[in-house]
Automatic annotation (TrEMBL):
Pfam families named among the record's database cross-references: CoaE
Keywords assigned by UniProt, alphabetized: ATP-binding, Coenzyme A biosynthesis, Cytoplasm, Kinase, Nucleotide-binding, Transferase
SUPFAM superfamilies: P-loop containing nucleoside triphosphate hydrolases
Subcellular location: Cytoplasm
Gene Ontology biological-process entries: coenzyme A biosynthetic process
UniProt-listed Enzyme Commission number(s): 2.7.1.24
Example GO molecular function: dephospho-CoA kinase activity
Function: Catalyzes the phosphorylation of the 3'-hydroxyl group of dephosphocoenzyme A to form coenzyme A.
Protein name: Dephospho-CoA kinase
Length: 197
């Protein structure tokens, strides 16, 4: 089995690219979606988060705007949240691998792959990238996003050029969706994983 990690900074196109790998038949693990499930209604991290960050949950679910406001501007608070969240994500990832143990390849969409020192665990690392201008335009056009929140998130992520320097493959999402999909298929071909595996 080949394990592929997919990473990239905010708004670079990870989710879009991960969906293309999934369409091509590669089972895909989504770290952000896992975090949302663990923090969502009845999620097993909700009581732990309420205990450490009082007032950031409501009726058994994390209120993300409240939690985001509590941690994004403060390195230590974010580290405390990560200490709760990351081991749980790791656990879910192991479960996903066991459930899909007969697949020829698995893809792991992990936004903070390098930041958490996780890249060594994968056979190949794919970095999704675009120009800083395009990244900014994409992110600022999202509902609820502000320049300040965007800057705070960027400052918590390894710069794009360092991510690219550490990649086995780079997918440039500055072009059309079809151009992005062609790069996904080229990587699958390069790895001997024809579409539809
Ligand atoms: C801080 C939280 C509450 C913000 O939630 P919100 O819904 O507002 O934003 P969302 O999750 O869509 O994230 C927005 C952007 O911030 C990035 N981001 C999220 N957590 C972090 C972090 N710890 N460090 C750097 N960037 C982060 C995401 O990758 C994304 O690019 C949430 O992201 C969270 O619980 N983060 C801690 C868990 C974590 O580290 N997740 C990353 C994937 S394992
Ligand atoms: N050629 C392209 N390839 C990928 N995405 C594109 C392309 N052109 C435009 N986009 C758009 O750019 C946005 C990228 O957002 P996406 O959610 O995939 O990024 P992300 O890296 O997963 O973000 P986050 O880090 O916040 O989770 C989407 O709205 C997508 O439709």
């Amino acid at each position: 089995m080949i394990t592929l990690a997919l990473t990239g900074s905010i708004g670079m196109g990870k989710s879009t690219v991960a969906a293309m790998f999934a369409e091509a038949g590669i089972p895909t693990f989504d770290a952000d979606a896992t975090v949302r499930d663990l923090q969502g209604p009845g999620g097993r991290l909700v009581p732990l988060i309420e205990a450490r960050f009082p007032g950031t949950t409501c009726e058994g679910a994390v209120v993300r705007e409240a939690l985001s406001a509590a941690v994004l501007g403060d390195r230590d608070e974010l580290a405390a949240l990560e200490a709760i969240v990351h081991p749980a994500v790791h656990h879910e990832r192991t479960r996903f691998i066991i459930e899909n143990s007969d697949a020829p390849a698995l893809l792991f969409d992990i936004p903070l792959l390098f930041e958490t020192g996780g890249d060594a665990a994968f056979d190949k690392v794919i970095v999704v990238s675009a120009s800083p201008q395009l990244q900014r335009e994409r992110v600022l056009s999202r509902p609820g996003m502000t320049k300040r929140k965007f800057e705070q998130i960027l400052s918590r992520q390894l710069p794009d050029e360092e991510k690219r320097a550490r990649a086995d493959f780079i997918i440039d999402t500055s072009g059309s969706i079809e151009q992005t999909r062609a790069q996904v298929h080229a990587i699958l071909a390069c790895l001997g994983l024809a579409a539809g595996v």
